[in-house]
């Protein structure tokens, strides 16, 4: 059995072990693969198992690699694979659900706390000597915001949204939820409401919904106009949920006080992305998912997916 990993570096830059996969066959690991069909085809060769994170496996590639029997995605999202064509070819595609629930919820709150408390900025200021020379015993360069008593609206209230909601509630916030089916667990954390009410009444809005045709660009000029003046927006879900020029305009006018983003529409971010020059826009390079603990769960689940396929009972199949 030949197994190839097309882009293993982001999953395992050296702090994990691929040994768990080697028991199933001869393993070849590429740190990165150029997004060029011919090179992807060459690297797959006659491998029967293909593991990818973000390297695209389109119809052309899959048609040219008839040995492929199973595709494992080192992520929850699987839009990099032409799953419909894979199904036509009887190739199961398995993903890794729920590995990053705690990590992504934690990071959403980290973005929010940095916006409200500016911890990194003030630490840098102290290390630069500004506290030593300050005329008073304290100083701050930005308004500091207390979250207790404020309202967080969460669009998309599945596992990750509920994790963020529980932390927000522990901080003393009122939590609203929209965009998901009501559950008993969700009602214990938040009040379910319609999207317009959430937009109109929330002090902080967090996006935790998947990117589907009906959610693409859900944050746009029209939806922003419905929000409170001075709202804070957090997105560590999918960049395509936001019309980026519209958000940049709202940040520059002050309609949106600040944004904390871990995702953008094109990644790596393009130099001409309007959010790079927008006011009060905190951007991190898509790292919510990346704690070692979460990446270990990805690896463990991928091994389980492969084992189940070879046992004739594939799991976590998305096609």
Could you walk me through the main structural features you see in this protein, from its secondary elements to its overall organization?
This protein has 319 residues and is of the alpha/beta class. Helix 8 links the parallel strand 7 and strand 8. Helix 5 (101-117) crosses helix 7. The mean pLDDT is 97. The chain has helices at residues 19-22, 37-44, 59-63, 83-88, 101-117, 119-127, 159-170, 184-187, 195-201, 221-225, 244-253, 292-310; strands at residues 2-5, 26-29, 49-52, 70-73, 93-94, 151-155, 174-178, 191-192, 204-207, 231-235, 256-261, 281-283. It is built from twelve helices and twelve strands.
Secondary-structure blueprint:
Elements: E1 2-5, H1 19-22, E2 26-29, H2 37-44, E3 49-52, H3 59-63, E4 70-73, H4 83-88, E5 93-94, H5 101-117, H6 119-127, E6 151-155, H7 159-170, E7 174-178, H8 184-187, E8 191-192, H9 195-201, E9 204-207, H10 221-225, E10 231-235, H11 244-253, E11 256-261, E12 281-283, H12 292-310
Parallel strand pairs: 1-2, 1-3, 3-4, 4-5, 6-7, 6-9, 7-8, 9-10, 10-11, 11-12
Helix pairs in contact: 5-7
What does this entry show, briefly?
Helices cover 33% and strands 15% of the residues. By secondary structure, the chain is an alpha/beta fold. It folds into 2 domains: 2-98 and 292-310, 3-Layer(aba) Sandwich (Rossmann fold), CATH 3.40.50; 101-283, 3-Layer(aba) Sandwich (Rossmann fold).
